[in-house]
Amino acid sequence: MKKIIGLFVAAALFVLAGCTEPNTLTSSTTGSNEQKIVGEQVEVVSVMDGDTMKVKYDGKVSSVRFLLIDAPEMYHKQLGEQPFGKEAQKRNRDLINNAEVVSLEFDKTGDKEDKYGRLLAYVYVDGKSVQEQLIKEGLVRVGYVYNKQAAHLDDYYKAQDEAKAANRGIWQYPGYVTNRGFVKSKVPGWSAGQNPDKNGSLEKSVSTNKATQTQSKTTSSTNNSSTKSDEACTIKGNINAKGNKNYFLPGTNNYDNVQEEKMFCSEEEAQKAGFKKGS
Asked: Could you give the residue ranges of the DSSP H alpha helices within 98-187?
């Protein structure tokens, strides 16, 4: 009788094991996918510079200001382009445009929007922090810390200490980075469009990240046979708050005031990308 009971128990355990195994696999797969999203997933419209972008969120196109970081300027009316501004912009675009999933995390201890109506968020690509990566590579500083309880602040300062110690990017020039921004005069002999990376630290840090080995989606639509540099492509592409795409030629009335989000080498290239001629 004991043998018969033992057989029944063994059979029952076998059946239960068979029933629970598929659920375990499903849970594991779901968890893996969820790891790529931190907060809320968004669709990226364009990346503007080293610390701002535009996304489709809550049914409309909104600008996003990356929390707790400050990148050198690219389009400031008074300051103009600052050293490492172009490098920060390019790296930010590389990280975001090469990601499968881009998501935003809002800080529960702070405001969701600033006074300009921009979303204030931590930005993630495939579950990894964009802010922390840009800080580590010496492309941005920790800044605009109005909330000492902000999430991730300690991690950002730790990443910044690492970049400082290695003299990466913006930290190559003593006095260039201040707690109020950047001082262009501390980078001797630099002019807009030049690469200020005198010690090659940016190239070294970027080469260690696999994401940069794939061509940015931003540039993938351009003519592969062309070897023109960004400097040779002077047509500015802009996407406004309504999502309208316009391009502007050098010499037109609004050209200097247009905030470039994409650059084109010809009108044909801009039109193929869905942009219309602006006035």
From this structure: 130-136, 153-165
Conformation bin of residue 73: beta by default, left when phi > 0, alpha when psi is -120 to 50: beta
Q: Which residues pair with 262 in a beta bridge?
A: 237
Active site residues: 65, 73, 118
Q: Is the pLDDT of residue 70 over 50?
A: yes
Q: How far is CA 54 from CA 82, 85, 173, in A?
A: 22, 18, 31
Please give the Cα distance from 65 to 81 (Å, whole number).
18
In the chain, the largest separation of any two C-alpha atoms, in whole Å, equals 98
- Nearest-angstrom CA–CA distance, 196 and 85: 10
Q: Tens digit of pLDDT for each residue in 2-21? A: 555 555 555 554 444 444 43
pTM score, two decimals? 0.68
Q: How far apart, in whole angstroms, are the C-alpha atoms of residue 1 and residue 230?
A: 85
Can you name the residues that pair with 145 across neighbouring β-strands? none
Contact 117, 75 (CB under 8 A): no
Q: What is the rounded CA–CA span in Å between residue 171 and residue 136?
A: 11
First-residue to last-residue Cα distance in the chain: 94
Residue 153: CB atoms within 10 A of its CB come to: 16
Give the span between the Cα atoms of 88 and 69, in whole angstroms. Answer: 12
